[in-house]
Amino acid sequence: MNKYRVPLGLTPNEPCSYLPKEQQSLAFVILPHLLSSENYNQWLQAGFRRTGNNLYRPQCENCSKCHSLRIDIQHFSPSKSQKRQLNQLSKLEVRFQDSLDKNWFSLYEAYISERHREGAMFPANQKDFLSFIQSHWQETRYLHLYENGELIAVAITDLFHSAYSAIYSFFAPQHRLSLGSLCVLAQIQEAKRKGQAWLYLGFQIDSCPAMNYKDKFKPNQKYINNAWVQTE
Questions:
Q1: Is the per-residue pLDDT at 2 higher than 50?
Q2: Residue ranges of the domains in the chain?
Q3: Alpha-carbon distance 208 to 117, whole Å?
Q4: Which distant-in-sequence residues (6+ apart) come within 8 Å of 90 by Cβ?
Q5: pTM for the complete prediction?
Q6: Is the peptide bond prior to 123 cis by the omega test (within 30 degrees of 0)?
Q7: Distance between CA atoms of 227 and 209, rounded to whole angstroms?
């Protein structure tokens, strides 16, 4: 990171997507063409995330509630409810693939229409979504969950030498199972099988109910004041 002295930009303040009473601003890499998977791994360890070929992290003037979170893969200990979910996962077909299933967009479209109709990703657009998840310099895999041959969930995962990074997931919105959690558990299983140390889950805001599921995967660490801190 320091070798290239990559400059950062800062977006103007705007209403926060997760905390309506707060204003958000993002620090972002100005010269993304200097990036590679190797130095992105360094940025990831510094609390940054990827969208397409661009890296960013919150840099809010009056709020510091948003922290990057990562799961300690080799010491992960499932809770009672996660043990039940692991049993559910064992009855599904799990595939990590180099490309998306041919039926992915219909599943994504149903998910966005049901869960995020008020969000920026509605209406679902195939070109925009692929631009969001793909990068020409980052190795990415696509986790698929199938039930009786039917695609029910997809999780996009970046691969590094010692870590995985969960980029985005979508799933059948009316399904009886907690498919978002099952996607994380499947990523944990695959990461452990590959000997990885961490699974990065993106940003966590303790006061945002929609994000609380991330903190249930323990042990984990949060990036606070430029250091990774073990949580209780």
A1: no
A2: 8-66, 69-230
A3: 19
A4: none
A5: 0.93
A6: yes
A7: 24
Give yes or no for a contact between 216 and 198, defined as CB atoms under 8 angstroms apart.
no
**Residues whose CB is less than 8 angstroms from the CB of residue 22 and which lie 6 or more positions away in sequence, other chains included:** 15, 16, 60, 62, 63, 65
State both tokens at 116: 């995020």
Classified as helix, coil or strand, 4 is: coil
pLDDT at 1 (0 to 100): 46
Q: List, edge to edge, every strand of the sheet that includes 26-29.
A: 8-10, 26-29, 54-58, 49-51
Helix (H) or strand (E) holding 63: none
Question: What does the pLDDT look like over 158-183, one tens digit per residue?
Answer: 999 999 999 999 999 999 999 999 99
What tens digit of pLDDT does each residue of 52-65 get?
999 999 999 999 99
Residues 6 or more apart whose CB falls under 8 angstroms from that of 170 comprise: 107, 108, 111, 112, 153, 154
Which DSSP state fits 199?
E
Report the CATH fold assignment for 69-230.
Aminopeptidase (3.40.630)
